[in-house]
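User: Before I run my own analysis I want an independent prediction to cross-check against. Here's the chain; please return only the structure tokens and, at the end, one sentence I can use as a sanity check.
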Amino acid sequence: MQAAATVFQMMEARQRGGEDAEYVCRLRRSGFMKSDFSLGDRVKLSALGERRCPRLAGKSGTVVGRSIYVNSVAVLFDGNKSPRTFHGAYLEAVKEHVA
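Assistant: Structure tokens:
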């Protein structure tokens, strides 16, 4: 089932062309098949996520849950009351600054 989803994502990205197709190909080659985020991790939208969800660009949040989908996590963005679920490719970890 995962392979079918990955093939579908690849086909969809190829139809869009450009950077999205290259990004998905890199994810597939790197073995990105499950979420690399744990509960409590601080995250922000990746470049791909910002293109897809421009209203959330620049916001950061906390991973508060898992999804029924292997590649997705629930994120509670700062200032929001309820979490939103995102595919791992739309997120990147925020480096914590220790003072």
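Sanity check: The beta strands are 42-45, 60-66, 72-77, 84-87, 91-93.
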